[in-house]
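Moderator note: this is an archived Q&A kept for reference. The question asked for a predicted structure of one protein chain; the sequence and the answer are reproduced below.
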Amino acid sequence: MVRYGAEQLFNAENAIELALCQSATLISELSRMRMESRMSAVVGQDVLDSAADVIIKLTAARRAMVLTHEHLNGVKVQIGCGAVATGDDVLKPPKTVEAPQPQGLPVAS
């Protein structure tokens, strides 16, 4: 169950990431084609505006998916599951907040 859920999470994350890549390529290619055809920057500005809005919304969706991932890690702990390794060996950045390290037992006097 947990492995299947993790696979679905990674599929959703990758779909959003791919949509971001494709949308950025669309903006780049539309701008390049406009410049190569020597058209005024006025031509297609509304298209560029709406495509840029898509990037903003996809970035927000990516942020929400990252948050969903974090919340699911909490659920995994609540139901008593350990780490689930799926997919390829994607490197993750180090956590910014480290867990406190045990200091040993205090000595009573």
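Archived answer notes: Residues 2-78 form one domain.
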